[in-house]
Amino acid sequence: MIYATQMNECLRAIDAHSRYAAGSTAWNDGQRGVAVVNGTPVVSAFGSNITDVCIVDEAGSTCQFIRSPNMDETLGVMDAKDLLMVDKDGTNVSVQDLLDDIEETCKYMGYTSVKTNTGVNQKVVVRFQTAWVPIKKGTTFTKIVPQHYSYQTRSRTKPRNLLVLGTAQGVFAHNDDSGGNKLFAHSVDASGTVHNHWFEAESNKDCMVGHAATAEEEGLPKKKARAVEMGIRGMGPRTNCFVTVAVPNTQKKEVYTRGLPSFAMTSNDDDDECAPVYRSCGSACTGKSYSARVSVAEESVGTCDTNAIDIVRPANEPIVVTVLTYNTVEVPDDFEGESTTMNVAATDVALGVADLDRQYDLVKKNGGVVCKLSELPAMLHKLTNEHMAQIVKKVTEDPPPFKEDPMVPTDSALSAFA
To answer: What's the domain range around 285?
Structure first.
């Protein structure tokens, strides 16, 4: 949407533009390639596990994120036990609990097996983002859904990642698919058929951007999301938080083509390493923002076939958790999505930034560390000269034999690729 320019101006005005950027796409990558340019290793837009994420409404328009700059984002490394999700009965479960019992959680989708290769006190990588959903004046909600595009996935039966979407109303199992893959909510009927549901984002007028919601909600309809603690431990009760756990999957390589420029990868069925791909890099209004209440819509919008495949996480690839909070902003009833300029109030942008800052601070308060992607060996892999010269998807070299824990950030992480 056009109003990212205005939001980025607000970020500059509050001196936050070096830490955050606004846009309609976030790079929710699992690993990124390192290129050597004039003898210097640099993080590239290539990667062995790269994913673009946006939030779309029923019309296909996208919402705006504020997130760390895509190329070298800020990440946390912490124990999975200190990241919280919510079970269907409303009780908290940690990401560690999820990983320990993931086959049970995901069995409704028909997976043959799910092997995360995780242990006690599992370390995970975490990122934080916040988004704004336009609500037209005179309406109460907008239907939205997160949409993932995995550059490595060309078939639902050969996904690059298992994706577990955590919401205030339970968790929903997905895996990468070809093209834009909407992460709908699910319900399962008596016959075992899985139904898809949009999410409804409405303004929580009792809660400003970045504030914890009221836990006591007498008289709220049963179908609405309740305020529960989600995300990183200490964020407080939320009605607007999604937690997505991306578990990388071992994937056989295939031949891919893509335009502008086009390129291909040589298939090698004996090699399980994933090849890198390249990522392509009207009227105005200012509305009041609120924290969103994001609930599962009641009506089914189609069904989802079960998927009898094995999920096996490569032991040298990190599990990445994305914590996304939603806000709303009121727009005129003639608002036309991406064809209309919409301004988010500067004070609300500042509140969103303060909330993100607090979440990264909570990583450290929960015993974790905060670093740049370029400082975290587990998020990096080496690109060959041939990759850079020909812009091809090809077999990468094995990751360097790191002597230290690859989940421990270091300012010399890139030097291992020189």
So the answer is: 4-417
